[in-house]
Amino acid sequence: MGMHFLQPLNLVAGVILFWMALGLFGLLLQRRPRLITGLLFPAGAAGGVFLLLIGGYAMGDSSQTMVLGFGLPDLPFHLRLDSLSCFFLALLGSVAAGISWFASGYFRTMQGSALGLLCLQYHVFLASMGLVMLADDAYLFMVAWETMALSSYFLVTTDHHLPEVHKAGFLYLLIAHIGAIAILLSFGVMQGGHSDYTFGALREAHLTGFWASVAFLLALFGFGAKAGMLPLHVWLPDAHPAAPSPVSALMSGVMLKTAIYGILRVTFDLLGTPLLWWGALVLALGLVSALFGVMFAAVQTDMKRLLAYSSIENIGVIFVGVGLTIIFHSDGKGLLAALALTATLYHSINHAFFKGLLFLGTGAVLHATGERNLGRLGGLIHRMPWVAALSLVGALAIAGLPPLNGFVSEWLMLQAFLLSPGLSQPYLNMLVPVAAAALVLATALSAYVMVKFYGVIFLGQPRAENIRQAHDAGWWERLGLGWLALGCIALGLMPVAVILQLDSVTHALIGQDLGTAAKSGWLFLTPVAAQRASYSPVFFLTVILVVVLISFLAVRLFYTGRLKRGPAWDCGYPAQTARMQDTAEGFGQPIRHIFGPVFRTQVELPDADDLKPKYRVIVQDRFWHLIYLPIARSVEYSSRQIGKLQQGRIHVYLLYSFLTLIALLLLIR
Amino acid sequence: MSLIEGISYQLLQSLLMVLLAPLMLGWVNQCRAWLQNKSGAGLLQPYRVLRKLFHKDVVLAHNASVLFRATPYIRFGCMWLAAGIVPVLATDLPFSPAADVIALVGIFSLSRMFLALAAMDIGTAFGGLGARREMMVSFLAEPALLMVFFTASLISHSTSLTTIVQTLAHAKFVIYPSLAFAAAAFLMILLAENARVPVDNPATHLELTMMHEAMILEYSGRHLALVEWASAIKLLIYITIGIALFLPFGIAEAGEWSALPLAFGALLVKLLLAGSGLALLETLSAKMRIFLVPEFLGTAFLLAVLGLLMHFLLES
Amino acid sequence: MPITLSGQLINLLAALLLLIAFAMITQRRILSLVNLFALQGLVLGMSTLVVAYSTGQHHLYFSAVLTLAIKVVLLPWILHRLMRKLNVQWDVETLINIPSTLLVGIALVIFAFNLASPISHLAGTILRSTLGIALASVLLSFLMMITRRKAIPQVIGFLAMENGLFFAATSATYGMPMVVELGIALDVLVGMFIFGIFFFQIRERFDSLDLRHMEKLKDD
Predict the structure, then answer these.
(1) Which chain A positions have a beta carbon within 8 Å of C106's beta carbon?
(2) How many angstroms separate the CA of residue C52 from the nearest CA in chain A?
(3) Which residues of chain A have a pLDDT value below 50?
(4) Does A437 touch chain C (CB under 8 A)?
């Protein structure tokens, strides 16, 4: 019996309970802020590391289930740990560990009840995400899903006195709930009239094509709303900047992935046999999201909004992978489906790491300078060398550059695309490589975005006076950033080891794995065959480092000239000021020019003889004006119509009730 | 083939590429001078420039960071790695499994990203402008380059350069119309990525037209030497990639020492022709306005995509 | 399935034909447009020659010569003369910007190929995979006519469309009967003369060859 408790499922449940307990302790200890930041948050991080270890260890095991005696009346909660949930739990744990360490430094200036509440919400948020991945029935899933939405809503509105934060939180809550309703309906369709909502029963339901498609579309809508897929993305660029940076990191890095988890769970596990057109739809939506996200990221001037749009891009890339997997799977190409699914999972965990890292980096900058506006930053590499160096890792990784992790998933995804000519559908096998072109364009654009992001924040001269006093982040922050940066490097250098772990997930989901990836040893990644494609990041890095070292030593050895410091040359123009540097708007200008029709742009130019010239560019999202505002207007209109029913006289209200009663009686008869 | 033999082959090729790259640049410049009725500075001029730069003092701006000083070495290292991967004299080199064509594009973008960041590091007006323009060119050129590679990959069912070249060079002679499109696109990308004439002008320091030169304005001495050298290697690599994809005939298998002289001779002729062709192209065309560049590269991108489609239309 | 050398050559020429059709869409200058048109005629003539040689269909030699004579020599010469007389050698304004037009063009190519694939499976000729390309170049020429403002590019688009049709005919059935071919050649020539007369009339009326001026006619 004693050993029985050490099952992975119990341990995971234990971590979730532990996080809940930490949250409660936070509430109790609100008089002792030192204890909260110095003990509770690091303990939460340790829980995360533990979760990573269990997830990694149990990923290859067969699934375990547990029925909890409590729950809704007569409806016990079901838990299940299988390789898919193990993977996402490991993702949650590893990223949450870094973020919690960072948070214990980041929140140390907060005091009193605000900190206690924050600690509670933060850990409830973590626990609810874990519970989403453990849930094995629709009830528990929805309870955990809603807890996640609510706790993150409260975290987003931490600075609730600011009106824009209020607005962002409201929009987030609204779209989260519309999405939740769609997911609920999807479960309703999936149970197929048996009224049994355990996932086991849903798996057995075997829906016909039409109802399966309905369930899939509802799930896609619901999870897409959480993930920020187009056109349900509008909450994301508002909510992420509004939240405190560790929360943004958690939302972008992990919470968006719960939606990916949901999509994978529903499509491959609960529904079982996906149809080809689902894949084409997801692929198309993913591509549009990726291109849209990255183009908008390129024209942002707020660093957190920029990262939020970049999250839309990455979610789009992940959706592209999901779409490809569905296409290959339904076409009976098992190995290719496994390749695409591996790329999808790999990109999910990559994005969790580098986006978490970058959001934390912006948090450190925000803490040190009080600025989120790119137009007032610059030159921070001199003031904050730690944050700058670690953020550089994140920026290079997200730009998809070898030998870091972003490149591995991009590489795998492109390999999957290149194998698509084997498809049996004539239209698709032509369109899919063209889709690869769009994906590559999005990746190349993300390098553009990252040069802008990193260059404007950390390089050049300070654009405002107050940031000259910026200080580097503390040790807790450095630990958190370092952990995530290390993750980016490790995931980039050891793809074979990671893919061997992922094999059990792909095997569980689509019955095929990528065992060939490791055939050429741990050094060379060969997903299909060594003849076909191979990549070795370790080798790659070694050669570059050796050449850098040799050339450095050779130059030192043979070289006689000295190094002098002087003012910048800049073609000899005197009186260079920081204001002459390229701004964030300027850096986005080519994108605005080339992809003009995508944006809704308003430009205010000054007159030629204006003494105080003002230049303003406002770039807006077309979707907001095309979809959301008309909906909002029609809702407002209809509520005004319904408002006419309100008479203010009690007799009329009684009449309404009476008429309703009569109508109901007539109906039921 | 023994390991030692393979590695010596590998080193021979990398060294040749790195050492001969300035010569190629000298040849292109010389041809350009001839075409413009000038006498030219001679084939060895790039070496003289490098030697001069290596012996000069470095003048570093006050606020230059470590990133700025490390970038020339990183760029040089990236180019060295790339030079080791492209099959120039022989296929099946020991380095080649380390990176396929996609990773090769990755190497180029790694070095480009560092250079763009270094350009923004000093915080001058021109640095930022150059970085922005370079990234603008690259985000269109990079997908186009990948599409060119994809066309070749689809023909040879592999993304490994070795397999691609073996398929194209040693298999039965087949005309691939898709490669004609890919070649046209590749030529346009080569011009854009190496800052050649219709897109950028390597010989100008005129503020408004600079791209690549604007990025490296602040470099001097040994740093500038390394950056210039790396750019010369990059040009040579691009030309050899073009040769490997579109004119691979005569390349040797690794370990075939006997085939080496023939391969070397063939390569030399191809390089001389390619260099003079490049010079001719640069002399005949005029530098275009900056906002025609996206159109130029967009056309290259679409040509490459068309090549891909052509593969499906005619060759499958 | 191995393809013979002549089949490969025809594929290459077909690819070139499509490439030229795309080049015409991107070309801003009328002069280059006419040269491209002549080049397209040359490629067309050569492909007809190759087909004639490889299949032994002798009447195709005749139509190849006819193509070369009319489309490479005569029509470009007339167009050059017209341009000199009308003094319109320079820029062409396009209605949609060029990259977007190219994107539409790529979509058309995919559409055309998938449209043609059932037909080309029926056709037993060595050219069956080129039918899609022929169809695509017809559609692309049509696209060029839609996106141009000036009258001369529209006429070139019309002529290029005829090139595509001719290529489709050779690739599907080894060419049309001689009478039909001669008739079309005559039609094209007569059409060209009529267009020439129209150009002068349009210019006399509006002082320009910009077709937007034709919109005024509605108000008259």
Answers:
(1) 434
(2) 31
(3) 1-2
(4) no
Q: Report pLDDT for B225.
A: 93
Task: Read off the pLDDT of each residue in C83-87 and give the average, rounded to a whole number.
Answer: 77
3-state secondary structure string across chain C: CCCCHHHHHHHHHHHHHHHHHHHHHHCCEHHHHHHHHHHHHHHHHHHHHHHHHHHCCHHHHHHHHHHHHHHHHHHHHHHHHHHHHHCCCCECCECCCHHHHHHHHHHHHHHHHHHHHHHHHHCCCCCHHHHHHHHHHHHHHHHHHHHECEHHHHHHHHHHHHHHHHHHHHHHHCCCCHHHHHHHHHHHHHHHHHHHHHHHHHHHHHCCCEHHHHHHHHHC
In the stretch 67-106 of chain C, residues with CB closer than 8 A to chain B read: 97-99, 102-103, 105-106
> pLDDT tens digits for B225-241?
999 999 999 999 999 99
How many Cβ atoms are within 10 Å of B34's Cβ, its own excluded? 14
- The tokens 């795998």 sit on which residue? A412
Please give the ipTM for the structure prediction: 0.94
The residue among A132, A343, A283 whose CA lies nearest residue A274 is: A283
Residue A77 pairs with which residues in a beta bridge? Answer: A68
Q: Which of A539, A541, A557, A571 to mutate to test the interface with B (most CBs of B within 10 A)?
A: A571
Q: What percent of chain C has pLDDT over 90?
A: 4
CB contact under 8 A, C106 and A430: no
Q: Chain B closest CA to C76's CA: distance in Å? A: 24
pLDDT at C90: 61
What's residue B276's pLDDT?
Answer: 94
Please judge whether A564 and B143 are an interchain contact, meaning their C-beta atoms are less than 8 angstroms apart. Answer: no
What are the tens digits of pLDDT across the range B111-170? 999 999 999 999 888 888 999 999 999 999 999 999 999 999 888 888 888 888 888 877
Q: Which of residues 60-79 of B touch A (CB under 8 A)?
A: 60-63, 65-67, 73-74, 76-78
